[in-house]
Amino acid sequence: MKGEFNMENQTSHQEGEVTKKIENQTAKLPSDLFLWASLVSMGVSLSLQCMRHKHLSLFVGQWAAPFLLLGIYNKIVKTQGHDKES
Fold this sequence. Notes:
Layout: H1 17-26, H2 32-50, H3 54-61, H4 64-80
Helix pairs in contact: 2-3, 2-4
């Protein structure tokens, strides 16, 4: 079927040296660190909004999504074990 994903057809890809080094370091961080960073950024944003610092509040509030995405990346690296292939 067209567009169907098949694991058997997937070729093996090796990670670059820089990626391996980054994944090696980020795998040492606990996954909940990124969740807490996201929650703290939302709390700080709320506090700034209450203090009428609208632009700074919006800036800090936008950090929540990247923190959560970094947490997802961290979890994928840990569960998929890309660092174990080499």
